[in-house]
Amino acid sequence: MSLDAVAGIGGVVRANRWAPFIVTVENRGPAIEARLSLEVFRGSDLRGTLASRTFHRDVELPARSRRRFSFTAPVVEAPQPAVVRVTSAGDGEPEELARLEIALSKLAVSERIIVAVSSEIAFDFLAREGARVVYPHAENLPDSWVGWSGVDLVVVRDTAFHRLGAAQVAALGQWAQAGGTVVFTGGTAALQLGASGFADLLPVEVSGLVDAAGVPSLGRLAGTAPPAGPVTLAGSTPGDGAAVLAADGGVPLVVLDRDGAGTLAWLAFDPADRSFASWAGHTRLWRRVAGDAAAVPAVDDSLREPLDDPWIALLAARSEVSFPSHARLAVFLAAFLLPSLALLLVRRRLRPRVGPRLRAGLLLAVAAVASAAGWFAFNRRLFRDDDFLLEAARVEASGGAARLSRRIAVCSPSGGAFELALGPAAARVEDVTAVTRDRPAAPLTVEVAGATTVRSGVTGRFQSRLVVADSVIPFPLSAVLERRSDGGRLAVDNRTGAVIREAFLVSDGRVVPLGDLAAGMTASLDARLIEGAGDRGTAVAIADTGRRAFWERESAAIGRSGPVLVGWLDEPPLAARLGGSRAAASLCMVTLEVVER
């Protein structure tokens, strides 16, 4: 059995981001069921802070076969080599069948990464201002949106005459919904885009090729002279809601469309065309199209204690996990004291039968039983519950999808292993627990299967671990604000299957309460915007202290570019489960970009 691996996109990985790993396993022996794993590291072995994360899946390897598998994993700034292993499955001690080390330090870069999906080297002019342009093979593109995390901009010219897999196309679309920017280019190569599966991602519907004598509107958009000579363009029809920035002769040349939190762009021309090879307006045009395109923001992975995390701290005070009630303490003390008092105050007529030695022995037996019962009650049952979790989340919805960011604190009063179920959606799982010499680093294992599962050990008593999980999920919630002289009407369509509690609309520093939005609700609401007193935090009346504090923390970045609908869910759409149990305390805020008309 032998292993081969391709790390990153186009041979590079972004430091402190996630990267795809494509592992090829060649089995020259008999058929076998095995476990394939990828282990990555962070921290320092010399400082005693070395910690690892292992991603694994159970695989079937037929006899004399060659199979490819993909993983996505984080790469730190000064990476240790990643390790790929194949181990035997089944009962007993697993046997290592194959092993491969990947020297990530040779691949990691700190520059911005621009991915060009193109069969020609046509986008090197974008390699400016600390950016690197890479041209990966189409078959090595990520099949999970998490694998695009280290990329700032994706340009799709063609697919190198290779039909992409449905998972790869879906991954690129989910990355755009999470905040990525994808630019599709036209010309004759545009005829491949629909056949490669990109038809649903394009902000236009391609209708054929058009020969144009010139494209003066591109010059006006770029603020310079237009390209010289005839140009072959891809004719198209813009989709609903798309903005046409430039058009000539009825042919849209530059089209932008919002997709979730990201941007999809269309250029009707081919940058590899000779007419554009020496055009001086390239840089200005791409700045207008891609703007300051940057990688989807990574989690704030500064190491911290779980209960000190800004989101989790709001839940710690309202958690149901607490010290025992006075009634429980009274019952426990009575169970310990009453037998002792009975032996000490036994009537005189029984004293000849219960001598001093027997009475002392019985008192010692009662004390031993009480101590054992007290240890069990305080440590395991009544007064210190088993492992529990606190979960805070934010759902950023737009365009029928949402980016779900969750912070999950797993607390272990007695210390031990835990199993955390995160749900069926592909998740970017970060471990941001502080690691010090006083707290040995425990490994984290992420099982890649139909449902993402995290397993770990929490060493020492009263320990906790902070896990952050980001996912892109379908979230059919939409709202349209129609402005009127009397304030306007808000049309809300909630097909998420969940009630959105205590919703309100924020626009230009003003607020209108909406109440609960029922599941399956489609309604038109009066939107008489109320002047808010002070900033947005104080302008919103939120009774629950945890929700109010969460809103005040997050409100600074909400509602700056347009109206936003805000509400609360009883639990996140992909609520975590610890051993099948729900969170002891949870908080989930929903924000939705509202379309204005």
Quickly describe the structure:
With 597 residues, the protein is of the alpha+beta class. The chain folds into four domains: 27-108, Sandwich (Immunoglobulin-like), CATH 2.60.40; 111-290, Class I glutamine amidotransferase (GATase) domain (Rossmann fold), CATH 3.40.50.880; 326-379; 474-596, no CATH class.
According to CATH, the fold-level topology of the largest domain is Rossmann fold
Return residue spans where pLDDT drops below 50 for at least 5 consecutive residues: 531-538
The biggest beta sheet reads: 9 strands, mixed
Work out the radius of gyration: 30 Å
**Measured distance between first and last alpha carbons:** 62 Å
What is the CATH class designation of the largest domain? Alpha Beta
Broad shape? globular
Tell me how many strands there are: 35
Which second-level CATH architecture of the largest domain applies? 3-Layer(aba) Sandwich
Output mean pLDDT.
83
Structural class: alpha+beta
Residues in helices, as a percent range:
10-25%
Number of self-contained structural domains: 4
Assign the CATH superfamily of the largest domain: Class I glutamine amidotransferase (GATase) domain
Q: Order the strands across the largest sheet as they lie in space.
A: 22-25-20-19-34-32-28-29-31
Number of helices: 10
Report strand %: 35-45%
